[in-house]
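Our preliminary data section would be incomplete without showing what the modeling component actually yields. Below, a chain of 448 amino acids is followed by its predicted structure, encoded as tokens that our downstream tools consume directly.
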Amino acid sequence: MKGLRLIFLTAAAAFGLIAASCISDNVTEGSAARLEFSTPTVDFGTVFTGRASALKPLVVYNRGSEALRLSRIGFSGSSVPFRLNVDGMSGLDFSDVEIRGGDSIYVFIDCLIEPTEEIKPFQVSASLEFKTGSEERRVPVEAVGWNAVTLKDERISSEEVFTSERPYLVEGTLLVEEGASLAIEAGTGLYFHAGAGIRVDGSLSVAGEPDEPVVMQSDRLDYMLPDLLYADLAGQWRGVTFGPSSSGNTLNYLEMKGTLEGLTVEAGSEDQRLSMLNCWLHNSESTVLAVGSGSVEMLGCCLSDAAQEVVKASGGAYRLVQCTVANYYLFGIPSDPMVRLGAGSSMEILNSIVAGMPAPFSAESGIACSNVLFSASGSDDSRFSDCIWGADPMFYTDREAYIYDYRLRPGSPALGAGKPEWAAECPIDFFGIDRLSGGAPALGAYAD
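Predicted structure:
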């Protein structure tokens, strides 16, 4: 048996040598036309200055049958914000790189743009050259640089205003101390590093406007997949927490997404803790909104997509007018109800939509709904009046295509199903559209 095994291994080795001898080892510096690239342009999108980007791959194919020697791989010009990694080696310029016939190599590129005095985003670009002998091919490499204000474990101890002049990069915890206040102007962007968040023990005022919302999201601006941004993934940053002493907070036209913990109001004050107008809180690895005590009013808000409850109310009183509460969470099948209402809490929901994969409520005690569309089956009673049950709201949302858009398609049963007197409390939606321009308003956060 040992002799037979030895004969087999010897034969296999001989076959391997014969097969290898069939592969041409001729190396040529022939036509660069034999090169093909996985993409015509390497585009980094927007990159914050002073920070290295993620690596972008570029596959270089040799479509000929003979090995091809590249005399140079490098950028044109002497000072570019891009760097290379070829066959595991980092640098700016490479020579005598071989690609076997019918084979390919990976070239990885990253970007580090030095800070400037520019206020607006600015374009940077270079040409990546591949030379074979006297011929060359070029691949454009592009990025948009954006200068930002970096805040690392920043503490606000008095009154402070964040303006829209430049974005803010937050690392660690941005703390608004007790007795202090932070006002955020329309069009301001706050971008959070992994694990970063805001804690408010004083007060927070967000003054976004139609077409100029305040944005809070991850500082990763690149794509995980060709049609899925990292910023749209849950769990990219911590979220916003209001401490027990914090009250009188107002959030207008805020878009907040991709959090670990969403927006949390800790138990404490029984005052008006939070007023929200035309906000979109989206995609949390736990809850989108969790409140421990006090009263909360939401007008024209969309609260969507959570691994647990969308809204978790441990105490207090809540009023939702023209709101959408939806859960079509992408990264799992949530089993918690969309709204969990603790003992002693109360919630009034008017001209709204509650739709998604889980059950709408943990219990109906303390709930009062009028003119609300539910995707779940049910019927009106003393707590539910003029509601639409077991209906598809016909959102534009498409989980398979990573599209989360809670506006209404034509033909939605939510269109024209609201009462004007409640819509008049927030007549303009997040996109600046008049809810009452077409007669009876639609249910939910958006005018159409």
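Confidence is low (pLDDT under 50) at residues 1-24. The two ends are 79 Å apart (CA to CA). Preliminary results of this kind motivate Aim 1 of the renewal.
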